[in-house]
Amino acid sequence: MNAPEFLGAASPLPPLSPHAQAGSAPRVSIPQSIRSAWTGGFADIAGDSAEPFCFPCDPTPIADCQWLAVSPGAAQLIGQDAAALVQSPEWLAVLSGGAVVDHMQPYAGVYAGHQFGVFVPRLGDGRALNLGAINGWELQLKGAGPTPYARFADGRAVLRSSIREFLCSEAMHSLGIPSTRALSLIISPSAVLRETVETAAVVCRLAPSFVRFGTFEYFSSRGRTDLLEVLVRHVAQWIATGAKPPRNEGPESVAVQTLDLLHEVARRTARLMAQWMGAGFMHGVMNTDNFSILGLTLDYGPFGFMDGFDAGHICNHSDHHGRYSYQAQPQVGMWNLGRLINALYPLVRDADRLREVLETYKACYAQEIDAILRAKLGLQALPQEEWSPLLDDFYTLLQRQHMDYTLSFRALSNGSEQAFIDLAPDREACRSWLARYGQAAKHSASLQQISGEERLTRMRRVNPKYVLRNWVAEEVIRAVRDHGDSRPFEEVLKLLQAPFDEHPGYELYAAPPPDWAEHLAVSCSS
Ligand code: AMP
Ligand code: MG
Prior knowledge:
This protein is α+β, with helices and mostly antiparallel strands. The chain has helices spanning 32-37, 72-77, 82-85, 89-96, 159-175, 213-221, 225-236, 251-279, 329-348, 351-377, 384-401, 405-413, 417-421, 427-448, 452-460, 470-483, 487-497, and strands at 27-28, 38-39, 54-56, 66-70, 100-101, 107-109, 113-115, 118-120, 128-134, 137-142, 157-158, 181-193, 197-207, 281-282, 304-305.
């Protein structure tokens, strides 16, 4: 591994946006029991040196806010009951950016990042405001007004992208895929200008930490090795590797701790990429500033779930060259890890040992994707020499026949050959693969000593019936936006919170895109 590309090469940064302190939210009091649980979170990490990490900034209130949703599961994480929360005008004010909790100072975090391969020396939370943490969960508002890092943008988020973020965060969590959580979604009739005039919304999301790969890149590129070290120690609290804590505080212990952290980030990122691939999820904007150091799915923009299978599918309309296509994701995950390794080079200064981190990623990805796909096809015990060609031919079939990804696995999990065949235009092509698959299934089940029924039950636990298809999200958005009707939103949220269940009567939402949605395009505009 070469020396990092930009160590110490601190280029001048453009001035901050004049929006610093622009927010004017009033202070509100909340019950002492909640207030005493509320800490500064990330802002507390470095005591007096916190300032370089975050910039104090108040939200800018918007008019006529109302709840669209609160996630009961996410509310529980911060010790709240969702039903009580939606009754509270104080919570409505705080979670919409209409008020700030007395004695708390919201802040925007700074970070840099590689966007489509190009290093941008400063990005930062342009429209995200951190409110501090409760029970170890950071609360972050998205769309509550501009911050010093907003550059020339408005600090807002539109209804459509906020609905997508809320639903998909909760969907990913229910699929067992690590993700930031969505606590609340609040809407307002205030106008927001994008390609057309839209309306505003604010999502409050939760994570143990919102630190990104790009946070490390920022301090590295500024030559601030001291602050990189603070960040490593801060993040290490979530990274339980089983390694012995360093005994002293010398450079050797920092190097050990950094390497330890990198190996764990490699494992988490590899596992996340394998889970995305297994679920047919495409993030769409895998820039290093959108990569969580904790291996969470972060920053929902033009994401998508695979409908008809195409390994080269590009879900982001703005990604002209397919840098972030479905099949590119595992490689991009590794490339991003390479950027993080570069950023942390100054704390380790041992290229050989850093290179081993990439080996950890490769080995972990190979192991995870194999386990995931074997579970999805219910072929855990099939000998390798039978497994590899069967799997290759399965994906060739999906690709050639453009078969619906989610429904293909679900049909196999239901033991329904007919449902599987019905997904393909060329039924004969399916039949020959299915015959081999049937033999393999029997073989694997007998090696595992489980019944055929048990095998299918296990498959249905890993092959969802419901994912957030773009057309479903679009239907929900149109109902809320055009008709003020939140019923489809609530229905879809329920399905996504239990995606492996059948939910009789709701099959419609499991279906491939209808004709009107064949060419729906989602872009970075949000
Ligand atoms: P994203 O593509 O959402 O990950 O955003 C990339 C960068 O642009 C981040 O630094 C965001 O904070 C910033 N950004 C995106 N949209 C806005 C907006 N409407 N107002 C302010 N900053 C924004
Ligand atoms: Mg982002």
